[in-house]
Amino acid sequence: MLGESLGISASQAYAAAIRAQKSGLLTCELAVRHRALEQTLLAVPYFFPAVCGGPTRGIPTARACPEVEDLLEFRYAKVIGYDRTMAYPIGLAPVWPHPSGTVQGIACEPIYKTAPEASLKDVELYRLLALIDCLRLGTAREVEMATETIQWLL
Q1: 103 - beta bridge partners?
Q2: How many Cβ atoms sit within 10 Å of the Cβ of residue 116?
Q3: Confidence at residue 78, expressed as pLDDT on a 0 to 100 scale
Q4: Cβ contacts of residue 139 below 8 Å, gap of 6+?
Q5: Residue 153 near residue 41 (C-beta atoms within 8 A)
Q6: Dist CA 15 CA 60 (whole Å)
Q7: 3-state secondary structure of 1
Q8: pTM for the complete prediction?
Q9: Where does 7-139 have alpha helices with state H?
Q10: What phi and psi, each to the nearest 5 degrees, are found at residue 69?
Q11: Sign of the alpha-carbon torsion through 33, 64, 81, 42
């Protein structure tokens, strides 16, 4: 079931769970160790650097993702005067290339090849993957906001 929702095989999902246990991300009872997960997510840009290409049609990611934009506006509008005027210019938003994508933007390789397809099935997963892409693609301010938001979500 986990593998299917992520677009990977059951054996890949099982192997990933075993690796997560061995690395300390999961307990023996498969409970998430939140602090370890948080530290791992914040290290993602170093292990999965962003690779961007030319213009393409795809699924918006990073701050171009509507769910992330809504979440950041909710968290920061009153605190630091966050507004949507910081949004990407038309055609320059980072997108995961995908045939059913609705946005024209700059192609950015997803953290895993099945991420775009899996994100279409699960809005919460989409939000988290887009936040991770904020860490990989964002400006210093976006990285700071994404880091704080990931910590808040965990």
Answers
A1: 58
A2: 22
A3: 55
A4: none
A5: no
A6: 29
A7: coil
A8: 0.80
A9: 10-23, 34-47, 66-80, 115-121, 123-137
A10: -60, -45
A11: positive
